[in-house]
Structures are given as structure tokens and as C-alpha cells.
Amino acid sequence: MTAKKLAPAELEAVYDLLSEAIDAVPEAQRELFLAKLALVLANMVGSPGQVAAAVKAAAANLG
Amino acid sequence: MHQPETTPRQSIWYNYRVFPFRRPAELDGAAGMQPVVVVGAGPIGLVTALNLARFGVPSVVLEAEQQVSHGSRAIVLTRRSMEIIQQAGVAAPFLAKGLPWSDGRSFYRGQEVYRMVLPHDADDRFLPGLNLQQQYIEQYLVEAVQRSPLIELRWGSKVVAVQQHDEHATLRVDTPQGEYDLRAGWVVAADGGRSAMRRLLGLRMEGRAYAGNFVIADIRADIGLPTQRLCYFDPEWNPGNNVLVHRQPEGIWRLDFRLPEGETAEQALAPALLAERIDKILAMVGRPVPWELDWATVYSASTLTLGEFVHGRVCFTGDAAHLLPIFGVRGANTGLQDCENLAWKLAFVVRGLAPPALLASYSSERVAAAREICEEGGKSTRFMTPPSAGFRLMRDAVLSLSLEEPFVRDLLHWRTSRPHSYHHTPLNSFLDDDAQFGGGPACGATLQNVRLGGDDFLFDHFRSGFHLLAFAGATPSAEQAAMLRSLREQKAPLVRVLVAPQPTAEMAALADVVVADPGGRIAGRYAAPPGAAYLARPDLHVCARWLAPGAAQVNQALATACGRVA
Ligand SMILES: Cc1cc2nc3c(=O)[nH]c(=O)nc-3n(C[C@H](O)[C@H](O)[C@H](O)COP(=O)(O)OP(=O)(O)OC[C@H]3O[C@@H](n4cnc5c(N)ncnc54)[C@H](O)[C@@H]3O)c2cc1C
Hints:
The structure holds two protein chains of two kinds. Chain A is an all-alpha fold. Chain A is built from three helices and no strands.
């Protein structure tokens, strides 16, 4: 489990921002968009260990 | 009966010469023992023979064909390769014909997203890259081989069987006039990527081959760009597949691109399609000029190596020992480092200066290097030709970000072939002062060249054998003089190089070579106070260094580096 860092209002804002950003990208480019987003966020986080933890969290319970 | 091609290969710029097959004495019943037989007269077999000769060991080179390389193939020699070629005594024609370069530019969507200037030290004689077609590389080496009284190059002679014995191997050689047996104390298998020797001994390589085919096309065209590595990512005309452009001598340009998924080599080489793509590449480069095709072929990338390079009496080297991706110009450049490592060891073993066990270090040092290259080359290959959907998506993400986000651009680095360090080899002395030096090449690394002035460099003064670089002050100390004097007579060939601010007549009597270092530049690069010394192996890798050695320490390090238990 990853630590909670965003305040509830911040999390809501990020939730809306991401939803609208995904909607704004044509379907064929969504994968690319999300991959770029992941790389940019990884660079901001600056820690390969935290990126690995994020990958693990995101990969859980997909089905 | 072996029937090599005897009409000259076609080329619009290179005049192929067909070398004659000469009937060897073995076909008429002679049955001597050759100390060394080299199988294959590619760049690596030829340099091996030249280096063996440098150490006084004769060899017979067997080559199946009667002409040099079909096509330009390996076109980039690295600085380290040129240093190896210089030590072999044949650099002049390479420098006269080759095109030196040091930087590369990568483009995406018409924008330059990455520029890399390869490091170049003012103390280096050679630039990072020298572009020269493999036909010329082989021709210059063949010319040097023909001048050597110690090398017999047999054209049209194909090895078809091998038998290992305790103290030698027997090769079965097929020729235009029939077959014969050739006995060899040692065999160097330099017979290339499709090595017959590897197959005949039943050896398998480890690693992986990558899916995805690339076209290489050499054209003559008046493109008028400088010598650089040009890379175009994901061009509009060939989505997802990159294009590389390299300039070669004789107005020839190498175009290299990946085929779209599912296309076969035959389809890609069909003249109409190939011509259409060449036009598109020239338009992309901004030079839509007329062109003429010289040679085109299809290849794929592998990162494969034998796990052991010495098998009984057979030593594998070059592409026969490993198949590496050409991204980062690995093929011939890695092979040259292999054979530079092998030649002196084999020569010492043949001359009884070292036990056969020394060859185990050739295998361990170069297998480690090959594995490192497979690892690194694999990274470049996965970027240039993503093997799966995930790698492709991330590659596309990186390219897209590269336009605005510099942080991803390091991923576009193409990881050029570089000299390997043998830090962990048992040939290094473990009783020296390696850790006490504040700089300079450490044990295992190659010596650093130093510019002495104008066109005069430290390596120019080297000879064949181990080199002891001893650093003196205004006058050598009594201990240093005694050490140098007592090292005069050596079992192993040792060149005593004395580096001094102001050489004197006394110094000339103490050393084989005296190098003036008035400004202390060499001493500085080697972080060497007066009295210090470096011992370098004949392949110029440091195997010991001390602050103030005596002859006994140097002798012990020499014994260790020759695989003799001291
Ligand atoms: C199509 C192609 C394109 C390439 N492009 C590049 C490139 O762009 N950049 C790069 O760095 N590298 C490239 N390479 C790789 C490069 O050519 C090799 O790494 C390099 O030539 C290796 O040298 P070698 O001496 O080990 O082997 P080779 O040059 O292959 O020489 C082996 C020799 O052994 C001979 N031989 C084979 N079998 C026998 C036998 N049974 N008996 C006697 N002789 C035999 C062959 O005729 C040949 O002359 C390319 C290779 C190919 C095939």
C-alpha cells in the first residue's frame, strides 16, 4: 500500500484533471499519453524504488 | 572440391582483386606441424596474424574466399581500434583513406532532439571514429601480411573438418585442387559469424537474437554533409522504424533502416521498393540528389556469445566467438580487442615464455567483455528495435517527450564500443600500490596516450612486449637505476621506457626508450611521482603500478601477468 499524500480536495481535483485529460486525447493516442505521463511523473518522483512501488500498486487487481 | 568465386565481385567504387590459389606442399605429401594456423582472413584473423608476427611467431592463414569482404560491412573503427592497428604497424593507409569524426545528431519530427559529441582528449592521437569500408580494412591488412616473412596467407582454402589432439589439432582443408590435412599446434578460429569451426566443434552460443530485419544500402551520392552519425527516429515514411546515415570514403553513404513488421528480405531488396525508400531517405535528409546503388543487404541484431573462447587447441576470436548488434559499432571493434588480447598470450605460449594456462585469461577477460557488450548492446537494440509492445510504447513515449523534455534524452545515447577494463583478471598484480595512486589508469585499464608535441605521441614510442613506464626526476635515484639495470635481461620481452623531465646520457644507458617530459605532462596524466612505475601488458592494459618498485616486484608482476605462479 502506498502512503496517502494528497488531501481529499486535492485528490478530487487530480481525479477530474486526469479524467478530462484522458477524454481530450483521441482514443488511439491514449496509451501513448499515459506512458508519457508515467515517465514525467517518474522523473518528478525521482526515485526508482517509488516508481516500482507505483507500478506494483497500479498492476494489482486489474481484472 | 572447394570452388571459390573467381570472378571479381561487383562494385561501383571498389576494384576487387582475385588473389591466386597457390598449391601448398601439403597437397603433395608434406606433413609438417605449423605452430599456429589462423582460420579466416577477415579483419580479425589478419590482425591476429600480424600481431603474432610482431611477437616473432609465424602463422599460416587459411581463407575460403579469394577476395576481400563482399560489401562495406563494418565501416566504423573506434579510437581503440586505431590504437591496436597502430601497434600492429599498419595505421598509415587507414588514416590516409578513412574519414575521422566525433559527433552524432539524432532527429525526430524534423527537430534535432539529441546531439552527442564523443569525448576526445587532447592527448589522444585518433578521433573517436574513423569511417572506412571493410574492403579497404582487409586490403590494407592483406598488404601488410604479404610484406611479413612470418605469415603465409592461403587463399581459396576452406576448413571442412577439425580433430583435436592433446598437443595439436588437425585441420582438413578443401581447395580448388583437392583436400589436405594441416597440423597445427594451435588454431585461431577467426572464421566469422557463420563460423565453421564453431559448428564443427559442436559449440553453441548463449544469449538472444532479436526479431526485426534491417536493410543496409550503400549509395554513391553527392550529399555534401560532414562526417557524423545521423539518426532519424520514427520517420513519417517508415513509422516506428529508425534510419541511420553514415558517410564513407569514395563519396559512398551508408543508409540503414528497419523493415516494417512482416516484410521479408526479398521484398525489401526488390529494386523498385528499395529505390523508392532511398529517395524518401534523401528527401528526409534534405538532399534529394541523384544516386547510384553499390550494395544492399539485410541483417538482424543478436547478442550472442560463446561462454568459453578456448576449446582444447582452438581459440575463438571475433565474430566466430560472438555476434553483437552493430548499434554502437560493436562487430569489428570488439573483435580487434579480442585478438589484441589473444595474440600476445598465444605468442608467449608458443615461444615457451608462458604456460598454456595463460590462455584461460584470454577467455575469461574477453567473455566478460562480450557479456558486458551483450548487456549494453541489448539496451541500444531494445530502443532501436523494440522487441515487444511495452518496449515500443515506452520508446514512442520517450521520443514524443524528447521534443520538449530534455530529461529523457539520455535514453537516446547510442553507447559506442569502448575499451574494456580487466579489473578482476588474475593477471593483475595484487601486491602493487594500485590503490595509492591519485589518478592515472588503474590496474586493468588501458594506458592513456599523451601528446608529446606536434605529431608526436607516447604510444608512437612503444614496441612489442611488456612496457615498464618508469618515471624519473632530474636524475634517477640509485634504486631506480639499479632496478632498470637488472631488468635488462628478461625471459619475457620487456621494453623499459624511462620518462624524465630532461633525458641524460646516463638515462639512455638504463632504458630501451627514453621519453622527454619537460612539462611533466606524462607524469601528470599518470599521477606518477619520481620513482613510480607502471607495468603494461603487450596489449597495453596496466597489470601493476608502484610508487617505488624494485626489480623483484617487477619480476613478480611479470610472472603473474604471464600466468606463471610466482
Ligand atoms: C551484412 C553485414 C553487415 C555488417 N555491417 C556492419 C556494420 O555496419 N558495422 C559493424 O561494426 N559491423 C558490421 N558487420 C559485422 C562485421 O563485418 C564483423 O563484425 C567483422 O567483419 C568481424 O570480423 P571477423 O574477422 O571476425 O569475421 P569476418 O569478417 O566475417 O571474416 C571471416 C572470414 O573467414 C572466412 N571463412 C569462413 N569460413 C571459413 C572456413 N571454413 N575456412 C576458411 N575461411 C573461412 C570468411 O570467408 C571470411 O573472410 C556486418 C556484417 C555483415 C555480414
